[in-house]
Amino acid sequence: MTTPWSAALGGHYWTLRPFLLEHRPGAGRTLAALRSEPWSLQVADAKLGSVRLTGRLFLPERADRLLLAIHGLGGSAESSYLRSAVLDAHAAGLACLCLNLRGADGLGDDFYHAALSSDLHAALASPELARFRELHVLGFSLGGHLALRHATEAHDPRVLSVAAICSPLDLQRSQIALDAPERWVYRHYVLRKLKASYVAAARQRPMPSPVEQVLRARTILRWDELTVVPRFGFGSAREYYQQASVAPRLGSLAVPALLVLAEHDPMVPAHSVRPALAGASGLLDVRWHTRGGHVGFPADIDLGERAPLGLPSQVRSWLTTHSRRDSTPARQAETAGIL
Asked: CA-to-CA distance for 316 and 21, rounded, in angstroms?
């Protein structure tokens, strides 16, 4: 019998397991055999003039559908969960663009925040993606938050569905949870990655706060106060969380969206997510799982899709079979669990 203690311990296990596997000798080499090319784009920025986005575009033969894959806070286009998504998409004949959010490539152009969906719009409108007739968006953690925001805004009509994995919805609730003393290991890991991107950016151009001050930040709240708030013109961290959070927008989703959550996620705990789901659109399909952690799940996870078990294939199947063409009242009711 599973006890609350063992279930919570399992959440940590599934969160840490992909990280440990990623550092095995030879991890990540499987993508080398796939046909791919570097991708970059200059996007307009009100303060900096322009900022470069980068990523890698994987191109199976004759692919006319594309998956845009977005990493989470502190991640990059090289994150292990994106590699798994690429391998599955390629096997199913989908192209895949693994996108680095601003500064995640370590090149120092800038840094990102949770509401920069304008960069997603720009990436999807890039000339290299003009050839694709269908677009689907998959985001992990903070990347999923961006994907959901994108789905509530006017967007390219080729975008037919989005999916978010273990994503925060209410940024203030998530900040409070991640800044809790018991989550110091995860917070330290994320802040270390974010600070590295800030240092790289500070070498290229003036930044809003002294590097030494940012390096002393020990909480997500302090990071946001020193970096995101002054860089992007928010009045305070509270204002940033209120304006950026997708939670109040979930009632206005324009395309079907999948949200996969782990009951025992130690980084985005269930209590920080559940209140935001009350006003969500019927187009949001929420799947809770007792086995799993933060963006880490067992290999046999089943979402009920007619596809191989496992998160990458099950989510990809959901994305490619749920589109606006399925958004009839009956389909929406079924998605909402009414039928």
From this structure: 22
